[in-house]
Task: inverse folding
């Protein structure tokens, strides 16, 4: 058996197409483009690259994009006051804070300052509460992307055993809640989980979001299961530098039923999804 490879790029293209046409309709109706602002604190090159990539993708779809760059030593108070200023700007529809933040920045306090109506990443207490309660609200992009990939593949989740490796606020926990809302029986594993392979081998759907290359081997996977690799880590240097996931693809693909590659699996869908959320927040605030 060899797994179906779940290519995220066609799905991302379909989402982008929908966003572009709705963004054009929004601009025609309101006289302005939906705007996303990324708050970038410090000069982490990966964060800078992510923000730039989002900006290019946004502009291509007819969304406006701005990057608010602050020095690493800005500190919590300055970042909070800049976010309050963005909250009060009627032309700003979506705000996201690039993580990780430098030392001295209180990430939860900063995220909690974002106006829930502009919370693209779904990380404010209001958005997270809505997720827990099953009420409408912005959801974090990566968990939504994973759900979209599963839906595109018509993976039956009701009654399925789903295991999520990772419990971050932006990926693992919200994804577990979305899977639960889809009636899966959900297990969350993390760095303190004993005998990870025993836990993951139970899963019909296994999602790894740990950021540990090679964490998921053939011994961790139930034959025929669906394996979604959220992890993205850079390994090697110079010409040898490459992006890898958590899953040992070569070892797992022959026994899984379906598997996402890295790169080209979850990440392109995540970017497209974040832009769709920005558009939806703009439409919602404008009453479109
Ligand atoms: P994070 O905040 O660092 O969380 C990582 C989680 O993995 C933690 O809950 C941690 O457990 C757990 N973990 C770490 N080592 C483990 C191990 N050996 N065994 C089991 N669990 C382990 O990271 P994140 O923001 O959730 O992101 C996770 C990964 O996804 C990263 O590689 C990130 O780059 C990637 N990512 C990809 C996309 C995409 O679109 N593809 C989007 C966002 C993030 P503890 O809680 O016990 O520490």
Result:
């Amino acid at each position: 058996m060899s797994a179906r490879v779940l290519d995220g790029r066609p799905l991302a293209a379909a989402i982008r197409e929908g966003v572009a046409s709705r963004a054009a309709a929004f601009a025609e109706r309101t006289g302005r483009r939906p705007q996303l602002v990324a708050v970038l604190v410090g000069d982490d090159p990966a964060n800078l690259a992510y923000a730039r990539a989002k900006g290019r993708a946004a502009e291509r779809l007819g969304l406006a994009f701005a990057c608010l760059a602050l020095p690493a030593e800005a500190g919590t108070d300055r970042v909070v006051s800049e976010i309050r200023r963005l909250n009060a700007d009627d032309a700003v529809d979506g705000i996201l804070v690039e993580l990780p933040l430098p030392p001295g920045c209180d990430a939860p306090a900063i995220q909690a300052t974002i106006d829930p109506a502009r919370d693209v990443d779904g990380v404010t207490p209001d958005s997270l509460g809505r997720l827990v309660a099953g009420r409408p609200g912005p959801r974090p992009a990566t968990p939504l992307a994973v759900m979209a990939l599963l839906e595109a593949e018509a993976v039956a989740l009701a009654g399925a055993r789903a295991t999520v490796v990772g419990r971050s606020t932006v990926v693992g926990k919200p994804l577990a809640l979305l899977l639960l809302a889809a009636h899966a029986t959900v297990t969350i594993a993390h760095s303190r989980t004993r005998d990870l392979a025993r836990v993951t081998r139970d899963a019909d759907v296994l999602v790894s979001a740990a950021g540990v290359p090679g964490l998921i081997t053939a011994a961790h996977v139930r034959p025929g299961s669906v394996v979604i690799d959220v992890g993205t880590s850079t390994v090697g240097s110079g010409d040898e530098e490459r992006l890898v996931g958590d899953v040992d693809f070569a070892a797992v693909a022959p026994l899984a039923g379906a598997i996402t590659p890295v790169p080209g699996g979850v990440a392109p869908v995540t970017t497209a999804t974040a832009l769709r959320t920005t558009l939806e927040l703009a439409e919602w605030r404008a009453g479109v």
About this structure: Residues 142, 165-168, 170-172, 189-193, 196, 209-212, 215, 230-233, 266-267, 270 surround NAP (CB under 6 Å). The radius of gyration is 19 Å. Residues 235 and 242 are 6 Å apart (CA to CA).
